[in-house]
Amino acid sequence: MQVAGKNAIVTGGGGGIGGAIAARLVRAGARVVVADLNGGAAAAVVAALEAEFPGAAVAVGADVSDTARIEELIARTEAEFGPVDLYFANAGVIGPVGLGAEKDWETTLDVNLNAHIRAARLLVPGWLERGEGYFISTASAAGLLTQIGSAAYSVTKHAAVGFAEWLSVTYGDQGIRVSCLCPMGVETPLLRAGENSGDAIGMAATRAVTSAGAVLTPDAVAELVMAAVDDERFLILPHPEVLDMYRRKGADYDRWLSGMRHYQARLLDSDGH
């Protein structure tokens, strides 16, 4: 899909990967609604684009895990630009350290998974009628592998990958494209959440990601996302080594689990715990 002339919604667009994707879309000729729980951050992303691309983007402060707010986002896009062509389900939270409390699981499930399901329920019927649409899910390499430190993050990202796969299998022959972004380390506040948690397993979670491969900039990831959308490629791996890790996991699950336990132990030992 060529994004020039298309209308897109980017959730979690107030910075990080979402902000970079929104900017890259606008520069490629798309019209974008930038949504974020922090409306001021979304507005700042749009303001930075306004001088060069006046009227190409609008900012909305919204909890994009709320069905009513997603409906409002879609309506705003249609009013400003026209029907939604691309939906970037990018908003995410790291979730609690360890097993966490039930209320923290509810939040993590809502943002990392249910937000995708709720958006698809609203968009897919119209896309089927029109014969086209594009759903881009931001999951994580944790959705293919696992995340040391946070059970909720690992589980919800696995589920996000599974939901994206299901969308592609079910509607891929009816004009609906699906891509799933699964990066390792990207330099965003989310990456440093565990490091700043003060919890040994949380700090190990950040080190697990930063020591596993290069930490990329959001702009670099956005460029790769645009290339994948242009190719209509399902799996977007900014860190190609993730595919090798995934293959090793599938080839010998017990050996992989044992290796991950040893890796976790080394990470904890390096912090003196």
From TrEMBL:
InterPro entries: NAD(P)-bd_dom_sf, Sc_DH/Rdtase_CS, SDR_fam. Gene3D superfamilies: NAD(P)-binding Rossmann-like Domain. Keywords: Oxidoreductase. Pfam families: adh_short. GO terms for molecular function: oxidoreductase activity. Transmembrane segments: none annotated. The keyword Oxidoreductase applies. Belongs to the short-chain dehydrogenases/reductases (SDR) family. This is SDR family NAD(P)-dependent oxidoreductase. It comes from Nocardia aurantiaca.
